[in-house]
Amino acid sequence: MWRQLHSRFGLPLTMAIVSLMGIWLIVMVLLPQWQMIDYSFHPALLPAERGGAKDVWSLTNYATFFHNEIHLAIFFKTIWSSVLVTTLTLIVSYPLAYYLAKVATPGQAALCLLLLIIPFWINEILRTFAWYIIFAFRGPLNELLFALGLIDRPIRFLNGDTGVLVGMVYAYILFMVFPLYNAIESLDTNQIRAARDLGAGWGRTHRRIVIPHAKPGIATGCIMTFMLAAGSYAVPALLGSPGSRWFTQIIYNWFFEGGDWNQGAAYAFLLLMLCIVFVTVIMRIFKVGLGDIAK
Amino acid sequence: MDGRVTLSQVAMRFGDFTAIQPTSLEIASGEFFSFLGPSGCGKTTLLNMISGFLTPSEGSVAIGGVDMTRVPVNRRPTAMIFQNLALFPLMSVYRNIEFGLEVRGVDREKRRDKADELLDLVALAGSGDKPVAELSGGQKQRVAIARALAVEPRVLLLDEPLSALDLKLRQHMRTELKAIQRKTGITFIYITHDQGEALTMSDRVAVMCDGRIQQVADPMTLYRQPRTDFVAGFVGENNRFPGRVTAVDGGMVTLDAGLPAPLRGYATSPLASGDEATLYVRPEQWRVGSAGDSSLSFGGVIQAEHFEGAWLTLEIALDRGGTVRAHVPQALESTGIGSQFTVGSTCRLDYSPRGALVLPGIERGRANEESVDVAATA
């Protein structure tokens, strides 16, 4: 890469680009991360005690987590719910991405993409709050279902996970649609036609031709959606109930309510590890490398 | 296995645009049939209606006497070879060929036997486990043929499958396709803009232009007796002489085209004195001689010469006429007579009336002085 940049931009510009990238990585990513990891292995101390006899490396903060059944439960619930969000988003996005990439005329596709993107000009909190209103006990959705005669008394959507799941699928759908769209779009349409021509029904054509081709896109979309879901704070805070707390909310509480940054850092580091493990597992399952995903 | 294809008044419209004018056609079972025409003439649309990718706006498509108009593509007894082949790149050669059988629920062993048999047929035995990406252009071509034949179609549809190959390979594949067609007895429907492909392989050819079939005939008839001006110009080259009929004698017609001598040719359609008509002379019909050869009726000046290997193409400006193209065989060239054919020199030329066709009417789209139609010989 160095050589390519060098031949294209010359030495001074290349140096500038590379050092800017380096500074960004070190100052904005590596150092803060390192600081957090460092925090997580130290006990929470008063400013006066820092650097003193009590300031030693310890695993206490991690032990706290593994001894707290509620936090463990929320951690696993967060994993499970994020997987669910990812799966739901994939199920919703795949037909949409396929339609955009292979069925719609260019005009229709442009219109659809615009309709998908416009809501994202509005802040995530506001969009989520819109769902809060829709799902409210005396809100429009209940009114609609009631008017259609499907229910005889309002449903509490915001109790339990329904609200959180729907809110997240909506919040992250673009992160799934776009990688899928790109992947499916690059498939030669004649491949689909050939499969159909050889007798394959739609199900088999997707299973054998479209999905294998779109695998890197599916992996990218799943990884992004999972990471965003697992790290989401606003959606569960707004649409969740006390019974559907997210792990990020626990981390937030450690930092800003408990004032225990060291404990919070340990929890945050655990979440980071979880995400890395998830990415690795997904890449294994889909048999894709980092290079495929970066495309 | 009845591979008859019957098109009854099929038409295809996209909004205001008519891609196919109402067309009826019967393709016999086991026939090698080609649709020949320039791009945009509607030949691919027609193919897509037979394969089922398009549903005609009007009319019906039947295969083996059974109406297929509303049958979806995956239920039709046809198989297609795509222009870009569309092999499945993530699968091995075997998996590609077996795909259609897998869909039909044929068990693993039978699939493999069938695939091996087909690989033998297309001379690729032993390549089954290779990934498709490792094959050469010609090999991919063969895999595409094997994959299509695996589903035992009654009709094989070929959409310009040879256009990506280089000349030598293309010529070789023509022979091979024809051989495979004879061996399997399947109806082949071949789409091409390359008249060489259509003429060499086909039992019959349909020449298309602007969504309409101009003529359906065997290759020789098509070349010798084109029925329309378009066919005369598109299949092979022709020199065109628009004029007025001055005399009719049996099948022979005399035409005044403004040249020093009247033109004579044969007509297959009835013509009367005074009718507008066009006479066509193929470049190889001209006899070109020296300026002093008074047995030749027309005089001209050589404008350009193109060496084409087996023959020399001369562009000759006729006295009081337009420019014509004439082929002079190289065997004649080498005898020494050729030395006179230099650019700028005068010559005499003539043709045998038996080798010139007269069709009624004048193509209005073209100016009268433009008597040469240099056909697209892609």
UniProtKB/TrEMBL annotation, chain A:
Keywords of this entry: Cell membrane, Membrane, Transmembrane, Transmembrane helix, Transport
Location(s), subcellular: Cell membrane
Entry membrane topology: Multi-pass membrane protein
Subcellular location, principal: membrane
TM region(s), chain numbering: 12-31, 74-97, 163-184, 217-239, 264-286
UniProt domain ABC transmembrane type-1: residue ranges: 75-282
Record bears the keyword Transmembrane helix: yes
InterPro entries attached to this UniProt entry: MetI-like, MetI-like_sf
GO biological process terms held by the UniProt record: transmembrane transport
PANTHER family assigned to the protein according to its UniProt record, in alphabetical order: INNER MEMBRANE ABC TRANSPORTER PERMEASE PROTEIN YDCU-RELATED, INNER MEMBRANE ABC TRANSPORTER PERMEASE PROTEIN YDCU-RELATED-RELATED
Protein family according to the UniProt entry: Belongs to the binding-protein-dependent transport system permease family. CysTW subfamily.
Name of this chain's protein: ABC transporter permease
Species annotation: Salinicola corii
UniProtKB/TrEMBL annotation, chain B:
Single Gene Ontology BP annotation: quaternary ammonium group transport
Gene Ontology molecular function, alphabetical: ATP binding; ATP hydrolysis activity; transmembrane transporter activity
Domain ABC transporter, first and last residues per copy: 5-235
Alphabetical keyword list: ATP-binding, Nucleotide-binding, Transport
GO cellular component, one term: ATP-binding cassette (ABC) transporter complex
Superkingdom, natural source: Bacteria
Organism for this UniProt entry: Salinicola corii
Protein name in the entry: ABC transporter ATP-binding protein
tRNA processing is among the record's keywords: no
Entry-linked Pfam families: ABC_tran, TOBE_2
Listed InterPro entries: AAA+_ATPase, ABC_SmlMolc_Importer, ABC_transporter-like_ATP-bd, ABC_transporter-like_CS, Mo/tungstate-bd_C_term_dom, P-loop_NTPase, Transp-assoc_OB_typ2
